[in-house]
Every structure is written in structure tokens, then in C-alpha cells.
Amino acid sequence: MTTRAVPRVYPALLRAAWGSAVAYRGQVVLWLLTSLFPLIMMAVWLSVVEEAGTAGGFDGPDFVSYYVAAAVTNHFTVAWVSWQWDEDIRTGGLSVKLLKPLDPFHHHAIEQLGKKLLIGAVLLPAVAAAAAVVSSIRYPVGPGTAAVAAVAVVAGFGLNLVMASAFSMLSFWSTQVHNLYQLWWGVGFFLSGWVAPLELFPPTLRRVAVLLPFRSSLGFPVEIVTGRLDGRAIAAGFAVTGAWSAGFLFVYRVLWRRGLRRYEAVGA
Q: 220: buried, middle or exposed (CB in 10 Å: 19+, 13-18, 0-12)?
């Protein structure tokens, strides 16, 4: 299938992914509940503020706003595709996907999008309602900046997708790739803004963190929507996201082509 034809098949595949997500909505709910770690960290930081006052310029409402936005952002940027790639390659399930005219990458992307649409249909109205009645949730930005934050979320998801897929291509040569990717994300867990806003980091560590890919999928969109970045910092953040996305996409394509040459199906 040509590159130009890909966008035409996405709506049909997305409808199928939506149907699958609805059919397995219990799994989606479990995924939703297990991704609420930022709210746990919010409780920790609120305890710190209550005991010691503001931390790094963040007061209680700042932490509430940050971690509510982080929880929402995480749902839309996370891309759990590494184990899917790994299983397909190990069990031979990839053979079925290779018979279809669309690159398996797109099938994994659409499956993720279907789940995100279902979660978003529930999560976004709930957060909007909470923001309307809870004064601690505040986002001092206009529609334009909010739209930029939405673009950053989409870009963060794209980066996570190609990053996970690039790592997964090593499954053609190793059976430990999923563990390797988990180790990689162990570093990202800390440097993305999950544990604490990067503004609370020591200056040197923050300068390193903003140049790595992890912030793009969490801290960067959240910092935009909470009004903590100016135009120059936003442009720099998008440049980092774009550079890492292009790099991982290149690695994915190279490893995909080489891995297919040595792929042998051993399963059904």
C-alpha cells in the first residue's frame, strides 16, 4: 500500500479499534485505573506543602493543577505497543499482519487510538466538570495555548509510538527487548515529570531532562497548559520532540527492514 493510501484506511481501522475497545472495556477501565500514579504523587506533594509551605514556587493548587493535567496527558501519550510487537515476533503472529497491505506499525497505532478515544470520551468531561467546581484546578491559558498543548500531546504520543516500536524491532534478535524497554522507561519515569515537575529539579539535571525524549510525553504538554512556558520555550520543546521522533522513526525503519530478512515464524 502506498503512503498516500494510508490516511484513507485509517477511518475504517479506527472504527474497528473503537469497537474492540468497547468490547473489552473492562480492560480499558483497568488500564485507566493503573495509570493514575500522578495523582498519588499529587497527594505526596500536597502533604509537603501542608508541612513546609510552597515548594519551588508551587503551592497546593499548582500541584493539583499539574498532576490532574499529568494524569490526563499520560492517558493520551502513553503507547503500550512494545509487548505487542514482542509477542507478534516471538510467536509468529507477525506473519498474519504481513499478509495485509498495511505496515503493522499502523495497526498498532490504530489499536492505541481506539482505546484513547474511549478513555477520552469518559475522562475529558469528568475533568472538565471537576475543574468547574474545584477551585484548586486552574489553567491560566487561553484557547490558543490550550490548542498548542493539545498538539504537544499528539506529538508526545507519536514520539512514544515510534520510540517503543524502534526498541521493539530488537525482538528480531533478542527475547529480552521488553525488559530493556522497561529499563529505558525506568529512567524516563523520573525525567518525564511524573515524580515531580521538572521546575523542582536542580538546574543542571533540568537542562539535561529537557533535551531527552521523556519530557515530551508528559512534562512538556503539562507545562504548556499550566502556563509555565513562554513562546521560545514552547518552540524549543517542539524541536526536541520532532528531533527525537525523526531519529526513532529512522531507527525503526532501518531495523524493521533488516529484521524482516531474518524473520522466521515459529508459531501460528
A: buried
Q: Which of 192, 222, 224, 229 is nearest to 67 (CA)?
A: 222
pLDDT at 12: 54
Strand segments (E) across 19-119: none
pTM of the model: 0.83
Q: How far apart are the C-alpha atoms of 193 and 183, rounded to whole Å?
A: 17
For the chain, the farthest-separated pair of C-alpha atoms sits apart, in whole angstroms, at 61
C-alpha cell, 68:
490532574
Residues 88-98 as b/e (b if ≥16 CB within 10 A, e otherwise) read: bbbeebbbeee
> 141-180 burial, b for 16+ CB within 10 Å, e for fewer?
beeebeebbeebbebbbbbbbbbbbbbbbbbbeeeebbee
Give 214's contacts (C-beta < 8 A, 6+ positions apart): 187, 188, 189, 191, 192
Highest mean pLDDT of the ranges 14-18, 116-120, 130-134, 180-184? 180-184
pLDDT in tens, 182-203: 888 888 888 999 888 999 999 9
Are 214 and 237 a contacting pair, CB within 8 Å? no
* Alpha carbon distance 58, 42 (integer Å): 12
Q: Percent of the chain at pLDDT above 70?
A: 84
* % pLDDT > 90, the chain: 36
With cell 499502523, the residue in question is: 106
- For residue 20, which of 96, 114, 104 has the smallest C-alpha distance? 114
Q: How many CB atoms lie within 10 A of CB 57?
A: 10
**Amino acid identity, position 104:** P
Nearest to 247 by CA among 167, 136, 178: 167
